[in-house]
Amino acid sequence: MLTDYHLHLQPDGVESRAEAAHRWTEHGGHLSGSWMARYVERARSRAVGEIAFTDHVHRFEEAREWHDNPWWRAEATEDIDAYCDAIVAAQKAGLPVLLGIEMDWLPRRQDEIASFLDGRPFDIVLGSIHWIEELAVDHPDYPAWDRHAPEVVWSAYLDQLVAAARSGLFDVLAHPDLPKVFGTRMPEAMRAVLHRAVRAIAETGIAIECSSAGLRKPVRELYPDPDLLAAFREAGVPATLASDAHRPDDVGCDYATAVAALRGAGYTSITRFRGRTAQQVELP
Length: 284
Ligand SMILES: [Zn+2]
Ligand SMILES: [Zn+2]
Fold this sequence. Notes:
This protein is α/β, with parallel strands linked by helices. It is built from 10 helices and 11 strands.
């Protein structure tokens, strides 16, 4: 069975959402069952049997004060409980959708993250490192790349990736080599550091995602790259499949490439989640 465990109901950024709003408005809003059904239809057309909505934590009012960044604060307009209720209602109506969230790893906000997750009926929690202190690895307006040398950014990123895995707060590390998004790859000399990080991540039992999103970004490559995916496999780290779609059309996008990469790395199964409990299912 194929799954898509990283989906957003709307694009990022106030302007992009305003431009796209007519699409979900005609369905009764982005939390309507009818809008979610568009994602399910696209999934079915690409032989994907189960999907998870994982909107960004920065979209929710409850997380507004977690970060000083003005973009982050402007994004925090949604009600987390309305989001959870809408997805649970879609499940009850029979749609094969999981309730998830893409949670930022913010080392100073571990207590807030834990209480945000506690008591809400999530099926899957993605852990993402988008920020290193006040700088972003993938936001062109707050670029870590202008301020620091590649070794510095990659090294800080890998430290945070391991810390996020060790925190025990997450089920899956999203887009594990995200800093390459604009094309700045990890210096070859850092391979040993990377492999230490892979071993540390493996000890925690967390999964990583194989994401086709990078193919739609300037780097034009899966997250993680084939060598890193093979290293995760070798270390015994389980994997999920994901598109990181921000609109129905991209659900299950480029899955032929992603599934071939998983197989090429030696994976024969992917991880399914329900109520934050993992189960391996055969990769078709
Ligand atoms: Zn992300
Ligand atoms: Zn995402």
